[in-house]
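Hey Z.,

So I finally got round to the AR6 thing we talked about over coffee. Here's the setup:
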Amino acid sequence: MRIDVLQGDLTKRSVDAIVNAANSSLLGGGGVDGAIHRAAGGELLEACRELRRTQLKDGLRVGSAVATPAFRLPARWVIHTVGPNRHAGQTDPALLTSCFHQSLMVAAGLGARSVAFPAISAGIYGWDARQVAEVAFDAVRSFSSSSSARASTDSPLELVEFVLFSDDTTAVFRDVFRG
Ligand code: AR6
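And the result:
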């Protein structure tokens, strides 16, 4: 599995799935969540409302992930995950690890070959970008080694991208990636 770090707008990526840094309501918000909903169009909000009416009546838990179609985006699916909110006292890195891991599990279940992540929790939710990058690369590498250890075609994932918006966050992710 290849890992790429690039600067840009997640909503423009032509990958199979992009990951949304959502909130538990799944009904939109600011940051990358707002950008994804704007670019995908109102059908995305309708799909999220449908999830809330059916399988997620209490909302999506922190660290969990769920997929919808991506509607007008170039991607095929949006995988919504809820990062921990440091401002609400959610400081356990295991919650963040779970976001990356669960998103990859959902992507693999969909048959996605490529998936693009933002810096989950590194914006409005107040986590330090370096810590997010460390958790993210660890989670992706351990997902990759556990799927190849199973020596099967369990996971079709070939490419994981990290798409960072700002110069600073891109520099931090590149630095952590290079070790
Ligand atoms: N492409 C890539 N990255 C982006 C984009 C974009 N178009 N827009 C912003 N970012 P945030 P969080 C970066 O705040 O911290 C929402 O209201 C941004 O610079 O989007 O997990 C949700 O509804 C930052 O580095 O997500 C939740 O309530 C990173 O994406 C809450 O914010 C994540 O910042 C989630 O907060």
